[in-house]
């Protein structure tokens, strides 16, 4: 049990992310019903299929062969596999792989930015919907 | 430099050490570097027979005469003499001296050997190397005792680790949508469930939870905000 929490601390240092989302930084909401938080149903409701698809540069089979763990099977996996390959080539001179790791970390940061933009987009669409509902109720 | 000037005479004296019939002591060679005149045979010590360490029976009580005799042998007072007989390894009549480092002795006294803080003829501890000024453990009293030091250390470290634990459990960041993966595993939801107590089920190791499905996600490329990823 305690190893689980220790693992959380270590993995935060090593730039690995989880599938579990912890609470956001807002402790007091102006209106908690206006926040989508982690509800997947809300995100699926406002999904826009006309947007371009997010492409994977590595197939599932390749990730299986490399035995990539669940946490790293995301849209930055191609860079992670590149880092593993570099490590395998250059061990023990691992400082040569710092450039590859730098790109992977930037990809992770971009992924976080993408998730933040998704959150804000969903929140704005919810607000628009509630406003439309309120106007239609006021008309009646 | 003066050593090189007197090199020939020095060499003769050093080489003469290897000749056993000529009696030379080190004090003769280094006499010019010492301010005190050491007595003859200062470092030529020869013990034999009764002067060496003798075995001492554990069962026999120590009579006052025997005690005085052994104390004189080791240059101790009879009331100070305690043989090392109660150790797991008896050392005969060798005396038990207080287990204090040389550094605890007075530094301003004119010892014969100031480095080890010892006078000539003083008995040497059996564990001398452990309580030596140069190689031994420092037993001088410190500001804090061991118990106090542990308390001070833990009273800082334990709250610090507790705060790390809280920081890991309740992190604070700006709100973001759940992370997007290209594959969907039903076992992910099982892992975070609180209703399952069976670890096999909770870890999602059943076959039905291991089948994965593909998921399509979308980007912000065409939006007015642009997107970090293409």
Name the shape of chain B in a single word. elongated
The chain pair forming the largest interface, with residue counts per chain, is:
A-B, 46 and 36 residues
Give the total of beta strands of chain A: 0
Number of helices of chain A: 5
Report the C-alpha radius of gyration of chain A, rounded: 20 Å
Oligomeric nature of the chains: heterodimer
The description of the largest β-sheet of chain B is:
2 strands, antiparallel
- Tally of DSSP helical segments of chain B: 7
The end-to-end span of chain A amounts to 56 Å
- Low-confidence parts of chain A lasting 5 or more residues at pLDDT below 50? 14-22
Nearest-integer average pLDDT of chain B: 83
Order of helices and strands of chain A: HHHHH
Task: Encode the helix/strand succession of chain B as letters.
Answer: HHHHHEHHE
Enumerate the strands of the largest sheet of chain B in spatial order, edge to edge or round the barrel. Answer: 1-2
**Number of separate strands of chain B:** 2
Give a brief rundown of this model.
Chain A is an all-alpha fold and 140 residues long.
Describe the structure.
The complex is a heterodimer of chains A (140) and B (230). Chain A is an all-alpha fold and 140 residues long. Helices cover 58% and strands 0% of the residues of chain A. In chain A, helix 4 runs antiparallel to helix 5. The N and C termini of chain A lie far apart (56 Å). About 6% of the residues of chain A have low confidence. Chain B has 230 residues and is mainly alpha-helical. Chain B has a two-stranded antiparallel ribbon. Chain B is elongated. Chain B starts with a helix and ends in a 16-residue tail after the last strand. The mean pLDDT of chain B is 83. Chains A and B meet through helix 1 and helix 5 of A and helix 5 of B. Chain B: Keywords: Membrane, Transmembrane, Transmembrane helix. Chain B: InterPro entries: NDUFB8. Chain B: It comes from Clavelina lepadiformis (Light-bulb sea squirt). Chain B: This is NADH dehydrogenase [ubiquinone] 1 beta subcomplex subunit 8, mitochondrial.
């Amino acid at each position: 049990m305690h190893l689980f929490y220790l693992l959380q601390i270590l993995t935060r240092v090593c730039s690995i992310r989880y599938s579990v989302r912890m609470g956001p930084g807002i402790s007091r909401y102006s209106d908690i019903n206006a926040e989508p938080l982690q509800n997947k149903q809300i995100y699926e409701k406002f999904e826009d299929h006309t947007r371009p698809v997010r492409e994977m540069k590595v197939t599932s089979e390749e990730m299986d062969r490399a035995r990539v763990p669940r946490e790293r099977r995301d849209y930055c996996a191609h860079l992670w596999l590149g880092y593993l390959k570099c490590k395998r080539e250059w061990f023990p001179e691992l400082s040569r792989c710092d450039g590859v790791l730098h790109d992977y970390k930037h990809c992770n940061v971009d992924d976080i930015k993408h998730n933040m933009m998704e959150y804000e987009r969903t929140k704005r669409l919810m607000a628009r919907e509630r406003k439309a509902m309120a106007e239609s109720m006021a008309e009646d | 430099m003066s050593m090189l000037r007197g090199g020939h005479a020095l060499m003769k004296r050093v080489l003469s050490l290897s000749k056993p019939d000529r009696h030379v002591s080190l004090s003769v060679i280094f006499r010019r570097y010492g301010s005190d005149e050491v007595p003859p045979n200062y470092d030529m010590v020869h013990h034999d027979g009764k002067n060496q360490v003798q075995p001492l029976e554990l069962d026999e009580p120590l009579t006052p005469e025997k005690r005085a005799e052994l104390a004189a042998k080791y240059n101790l007072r009879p009331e100070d003499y305690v043989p090392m007989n109660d150790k797991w390894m008896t050392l005969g009549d060798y005396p038990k001296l207080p287990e204090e480092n040389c550094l605890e002795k007075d530094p301003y006294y004119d010892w014969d050997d100031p480095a080890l803080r010892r006078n000539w003829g003083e008995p040497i501890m059996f564990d001398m190397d452990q309580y030596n000024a140069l190689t031994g453990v420092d037993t001088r009293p410190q500001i804090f005792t061991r118990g106090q030091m542990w308390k001070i250390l833990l009273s800082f470290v334990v709250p610090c680790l507790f705060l790390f634990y809280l920081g890991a459990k309740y992190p604070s960041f700006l709100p973001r949508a759940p992370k997007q993966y290209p594959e969907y595993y039903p076992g992910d939801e099982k892992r975070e469930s609180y209703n399952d107590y069976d670890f096999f089920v909770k870890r999602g190791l059943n076959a039905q939870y291991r089948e994965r499905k593909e998921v399509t996600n979308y980007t912000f490329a065409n939006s007015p905000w642009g997107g970090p990823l293409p």
